[in-house]
Amino acid sequence: MAPPHTFLLAFLLQLSLVALALQGAHPAYDDSLLCNAEPAEISFKPAKLDEYPSGRIIDITHAYRADMPKFMSADGIGNVARLHISMANGSLYNESELKINVHTGTHVDAPGHMYQEYYEAGFDIDNLDLEVLNGPALLVDVPRDKNITAEVMESLHIPRGVRRVLFRTLNTDRKLMWKKECDMSYVGFMKDGAQWLVDNTDIKLVGLDFLSVAAFDDLIPAHLVFLKSRDIILVEALKLDGVKPRIYSLHCLPLRLVGAEGSPIRCILIK
Ligand SMILES: *[C@@H]1O[C@H](CO)[C@@H](O)[C@H](O)[C@H]1NC(C)=O
Ligand SMILES: *[C@@H]1O[C@H](CO)[C@@H](O)[C@H](O)[C@H]1NC(C)=O
Ligand SMILES: *[C@@H]1O[C@H](CO)[C@@H](O)[C@H](O)[C@H]1NC(C)=O
């Protein structure tokens, strides 16, 4: 039988747990970790982090600004999140609704985007392979005087075995994602460039710095080449400003939109 002081200890421990619970503190936290800040100490200027102080994380996702370009439009995307219950109107809380074209801003395409039979068969965003969307990725600069043709692809000498490539183009230099009016002269893949990639590389994730990986002149044909096998994932409108060309650890997570052929996506690079 346990000596009596064991029971006493257990009883005292119980008491102190009850006391902590009454204070609202979980016993796993010691007092020094608890935040007792007065409301006045809370900063009212939330930081917007594109570059993190550690320099380890680079956010390559565009923020949804109302004046972000909308594909084939001069108007910008407008407000995608709108308050439908508002404290300004006397409610006890604020609540917004999201209304967004799934190909807005930094986003990903599913095979059903341009193949009706894939759409009907359910090759949607929820089927995208997170193993492809996350892993080592190479950021490359492409020549600024051409769209991405077979010749350009060949000149990049991307080694076999590289599975994820982020292509930075003239679009970044021209700051096209920062202009409200969508500039249809953006750089992207031509059909033969897409075909060269499919035939001669192991790339399964293609990232580009404007709203479409395909140049407007080859908008549909280049998408069809990429999406045909259903194992290449297209990530569009990445924010590659000021990022050094090299290998990073890429992390991209789309929303689990069942039945949708596109989705907003959050992508970061970790050095
Ligand atoms: C607040 O109330 C006004 C007047 O009824 C209405 O026009 C407006 O849409 C409301 N806004 C929100 C966010 O609820
Ligand atoms: C709620 O939204 C209103 C604008 O309608 C804003 O003035 C207020 O600060 C918001 N409150 C909170 C708690 O975010
Ligand atoms: C790329 O193609 C578009 C048409 O899709 C064209 O307007 C643009 O000038 C081309 N860019 C370059 C650098 O050749």
TrEMBL record:
The entry's keywords: Extracellular matrix, Secreted, Signal
Protein's GO biological process: L-tryptophan catabolic process to kynurenine
Family, per entry: Belongs to the Cyclase 1 superfamily.
This protein's name: Kynurenine formamidase
SUPFAM superfamilies hit by this protein: Putative cyclase (SSF102198)
Classification via InterPro entries: KFase/CYL (IPR007325), KFase_sf (IPR037175)
Protein location: Secreted, Extracellular space, Extracellular matrix
Chief location: secreted
Signal peptide boundaries: 1-21
Pfam families: Cyclase
Keyword GTP-binding: no
GO molecular function: arylformamidase activity
